[in-house]
Amino acid sequence: APLAQAEPRFPESRCRPRSSLLQSAAMSDQAPPLDMVERLRQHRALADAPESELAWLAERGVRRRFDPGDHFVRQGDDWRKGDYGLEVVLTGRLSTYQDRGAGLRKMMDWQAGDITGLYPFSRMQTVAGTTIVDTPLEVLSLSPDHFPELIRECPRITAACVHLMVDRARIFNTKDLQDEKMVSLGKLTAGLAHELNNPASAVARSARLMQTRMGEADRAARRLARLGLTADQLEAVDHIRDACGHTPATVSMSPLERAEREDEIADWLLGHGADGSAVDTLAETAVTVEALDGLASHLEGEALDAALDWVAAGCAVRTLAAESERAGAKISELV
């Protein structure tokens, strides 16, 4: 059949601009069938096809040209309703993109020597991705109406198309698996970030409070130094301070028991003329009322108050340091 008779098989598509769609049937002086056979003979994907099959394809194909930026096909289009077919890329390059909810993402590209479009035996109903022309493009299109005859008359070209179809499916499946991995990695990252945030915040909070507590400890130490305590008095203060290194008394306490302990410490401080600012800190330690009585037997008045402030500040610093250590260990464990 003359090449000019092939034109009606490809009506103009909605996704292809009229200005970019040039039918070779109307330009037979530029690409006669014999020249097209020679071009197909040099085509990478069709290099092993016999001369008769190349001539069959050149006789029934339609040469088309596209400009950069033209949409070759759009994702979701129906293959059966557009002017889509087997597309033998002669010159130029085009890229296929998919929108999986986060905008277009490049999946693969096609260039001279490739065959794209709809393949024989393909069960694909809709276009899997949007294909956009990158550089001036020229293709030889074969209508799906010719596929039964292509399968019967051109087994080598058909076999090449089947291999290309399998390769394309594998590429898309690989992209799907990669997307699933990235989704899993994203969930893991979000969960890890959430888990790391808690101990990291604890470290930052402890470091901030530790600066305040260290300042209080320095001021209390200077007060004690000015009072000129005896060796027995210093030993009594050290005995109370050593209680900070023991397991806190409130670890295994219920909220009610903890409140009762705080009340007990507060009553003791009030009864001995202390200002009561050390209640919360002392309640967190293993310091007992008996140990406080022992301290009061050696110190009283301003000396007792200064000693309690120094012990409380020191206990707070140790507690904050321990919290920072546990939080740092948690971060290391998570990592």
Helix/strand layout:
Blueprint: H1 33-41, H2 51-60, E1 62-66, E2 71-73, E3 86-91, E4 93-99, E5 104-111, E6 115-117, E7 130-133, E8 137-142, H3 147-153, H4 155-227, H5 231-242, H6 255-271, H7 279-283, H8 289-296, H9 301-334
Antiparallel strand pairs: 1-8, 2-7, 3-6, 3-8, 4-5, 4-7
Helix pairs in contact: 1-2, 4-9, 5-8, 5-9
Report on the architecture of this protein.
A hairpin with a 4-residue loop joins strand 4 (93-99) and strand 5 (104-111). With 335 residues, the protein is an alpha+beta fold. The chain is 52% helix and 13% strand. Helix 4 (155-227) packs antiparallel against helix 9. The strands form two sheets. A four-stranded antiparallel beta sheet has the order 1-8-3-6. It is rod-shaped and about 115 Å long. Mean pLDDT is 81; it is low at 1-32. The protein is built from nine helices and eight strands.
Short structural description:
The chain is an alpha+beta fold.
